[in-house]
Amino acid sequence: MQNVHRFFPELEGIRGVAALLVLLNHVGVYTGVIGSQLFGQPGNAIWAPVLSVAEVGLPIFFVLSGVLLYRPHALGTISGTPRPAAGPYFWRRALRILPAYWVLTVVALVTLNRDAVHGVWEVVRPLLVLQVYEHNVIPAGMGQTWSLATEVAFYLSLPVLAWLLHRWASKAEDAPARTRRIVVPLLGFVVFGFGFAVYTHLPSMGPYPAQHLWPLEWVGFLAIGMILAALSASAEVSQQVWAPYRIAMARPGLCWAGAGVVFLVACSPLTGPHTIDYATMPVALTVQALYLLFTLLLIAPLTAPFQRERLVEATLANPVMRFLGRISYGVFLWHVVYLEYYYRWTGGQPGSGGFWPVLGAVLALTIVTALVSYVAVERPAMKFRPRLGNAPEAPGVSGIFQQART
């Protein structure tokens, strides 16, 4: 066996979808289409459910991180081949995430938060992605970056977690048994995520506790991605593929139809009033379960190790979707800044304004800025990837480093 890079363009495309969903959700909040006590808006009875559930774009990012980053570890454990070294991995993650994020942070602090900066810590804290570990300190224009803190925590802990799973799973004799030894503990993390959601929604915690944004509540989505990574790696090295995963590989349309049904259920009254107000415990747990199932059904077909169905390639690997995937990180980073700018430039108040004019202005500005970020910041940073470890210069949003049989 030799080391090669295999690219999954469909995973790049789905990142573009996720970024647009997050943008739509936030435009819905800022224009009052999604109700909130914060802006004093009841919301739109027809569109609020759909735009509210569009927040599932963030869990999609979590699951994708689990797939992309754990798969080379899973492949090494299941096939008995070398696993990635930690040093080059940390270097590549830092180059991928930090330069563009630091540009956003500086711009947001200077243009939107000057009156809120009273010391060095107010600057250092967001630069180190620590803004979720204190209550109500996320800078204006950076509200969405709470999820980046979860991603960073996952990046830092993955080598240790992968090593523990390797120590446990490598004791099994064959690939299917090793896969089971990986999957079972990861299911425990899914359960733990529900348990932490129970804790953060206890009445004694009050609304919007800082712990709600901690990575522990969202670990289940990362675990789902890691499980898919293990199943994908197992399918590559073994003929014994779990039946549900074999169906996902062969029938992506069926999986996506199921995801569509789950999305509609999430838009129903079953998941509460569809506002951004802090949910009750039953609603929060129901939403978490539905989002876990939705992301599983959506992404499972995209992790097939060999030829994907034409439906998958046509939907997510076309030039438009791959372009959106390439600039998706910039879309994620910049759209909330432009929402803040829009209301300051127009003199309006968040919670007002027409959805479509705001969406048009913010989407256009965000895509242009995201493209500039990709060309001027993200892609140049990637040129430093080969300086620590064997890696291509291309950003890793679509590539999965893996062992390929020769």
Automatic annotation (TrEMBL):
This protein's UniProt keywords: Acyltransferase, Membrane, Transferase, Transmembrane, Transmembrane helix
GO cellular component terms attached to this protein's record: membrane
Domain Acyltransferase residue range list: 10-376
GO biological process, one term: lipopolysaccharide biosynthetic process
GO MF terms held by the record: acyltransferase activity, transferring groups other than amino-acyl groups
Pfam hit, one: Acyl_transf_3
Transmembrane segments annotated in the record for this chain: 12-34, 46-70, 90-112, 152-170, 182-202, 214-233, 254-272, 278-302, 323-343, 355-377
Name listed for the protein in its UniProt record: Acyltransferase
